[in-house]
Amino acid sequence: MGSSSNLGGSSAPSDRTLTQADNGTTIETLPGGRILVRLPENPTTGYRWTLDMGDERVISPISSEYAPRGDAAVGGSGNAVLVFEARAPGEGTIRLKRWRDWEGEASVRDRYEVKVRVKRE
Question: What is the CA radius of gyration of the chain?
């Protein structure tokens, strides 16, 4: 935790895919860069990954979908894929929680957080 990953020295924004292994880390990107977060999920249990607070001035959510595993049977597990876009230079945080929204905060089973530094081009 707390490690830092750099997207490279390129001046063009790029896509970056994050997984559970990136929880607690800090990443860097440029304005226009997209960040895809892939986390294990089985929606038949009712527990879903959702955004848990966020400041959309620096980084904002673009989309969220469920992607079943290719070999998964009906009701099997897959991944939540949440896509974010870096909007402006600064620091922001992607905070997610896996919960049953109708049961409230007591139902939170997992949390995920990645700090994002959006650098000037």
Answer: 15
Residue stretches of the chain with pLDDT short of 70: 1-13, 71-76
Look up residue 39 and give its two tokens: 């986390």
Contacts of 106 (CB under 8 A, 6+ apart): none
Q: Which phi and psi angles does 94 have, rounded to 5°?
A: -95, 115
pTM for the model = 0.82
Q: What is the pLDDT of residues 52-66, one digit of tens each?
A: 977 789 999 999 999
15-98, CATH topology level: Immunoglobulin-like (2.60.40)
